[in-house]
Amino acid sequence: MTSVLWFTALVVATGLERLAELVVSTRNARWSSARGGVESGRGHFGPMVVLHTGLLVACVAEVVLLDRPFLPWLGWSALVLALASQGLRWWCITALGPRWNTRVIVVPGLAPVTRGPYRLPWLRHPNYVAVVVEGVALPLVHTAWLTALVFSVLNAVLLLGFRLPAEERALATLPPARAEVR
């Protein structure tokens, strides 16, 4: 099997993982709504979905259309980072439990989560670290540097300009964090 087919399989697997996230997210959003959860930042959600879907399509399109080579020193390193980002993402999902979803929904009265990667005071949004690393690493598995660059710039605009401010405003409505036993 050629490296392009292996890379395509990796991107398809990543897409399937995203679908699994959406199933978990939908279930968790219902959980939050049933407890009075309030959604913030709805306006940026559609562009975020388009951008993240575009990342997957662009990865394969750039490799095929621009005949990007597989460079082992870059590809294997990027694959390790892409897989590590998935590990971090699922650690975040597990730590947040039913409070994790792809939207910004907070349940009034619940203190912020302080377990898992959220216990690190210097890493307030570890899930976004996973997103940033994956956005660079996944395309670079097969030298799709243009996709990595364009996604990173657009993701930075979306994340810094819209998503993080919405999330910070929502988190500011919660009571102070308290120590969790775990």
Structural account:
The protein is 66% helix and 3% strand. The protein has helices spanning 3-34, 45-65, 72-96, 126-140, 145-171, and strands at residues 38-40, 104-106. The model has no long low-confidence stretch (mean pLDDT 94). The termini are far apart. Strands 1-2 form a two-stranded antiparallel sheet. It has one domain. By secondary structure, the chain is mainly alpha-helical.
Please write out the topology.
Elements: H1 3-34, E1 38-40, H2 45-65, H3 72-96, E2 104-106, H4 126-140, H5 145-171
Antiparallel strand pairs: 1-2
Helix pairs in contact: 1-2, 2-5, 3-4, 4-5
Features:
182 residues, two-stranded antiparallel ribbon, 5 helices
